[in-house]
Design brief:
By secondary structure, the protein is of the alpha+beta class. It is built from three helices and four strands. Strand 2 and strand 3 form a beta hairpin. The chain starts with a strand and ends in a 7-residue tail after the last strand.
Length: 104
């Protein structure tokens, strides 16, 4: 298993809507993430900068690289496109974070 972390960027004023949509996450999206090897996935908000901080565990043989091409992921990205900063391909702007310290 590998733990990874990354940032995403919420549009100002959209925190409540972001939370609402994730509280109502689609079962098919949950199934897709789990099938890709994702578990223990959390997202946190820095309210001052509107930055989202995500951390998750993934299996060594994960299929996360295939997610952007899956129809359910494409539908989710479209669903979230009005409240987040997006790339030209419709996916969210993601900045991968480097581990600097870990304490078990």
């Amino acid at each position: 298993m590998e733990k990874i972390a990354f940032k995403l960027f919420l549009n100002p004023g959209q925190a409540d809507e972001y939370k609402k949509r994730h509280d109502q996450i689609w079962p098919e999206m949950v199934s897709l993430l789990k099938a890709a090897g994702v578990s223990d996935y959390s997202i946190y908000l820095d309210e001052q900068t509107h930055s989202l901080f995500a951390v998750l565990w993934r299996t060594n043989n994960h299929k996360m690289d295939d997610l952007p091409n899956h129809p359910v992921m494409q539908k989710w990205w479209a669903h979230m496109s009005d409240i987040m900063q997006r790339e030209k391909n419709g996916g969210p702007v993601i900045v991968h974070l480097k581990t600097m310290f870990h304490l078990d």
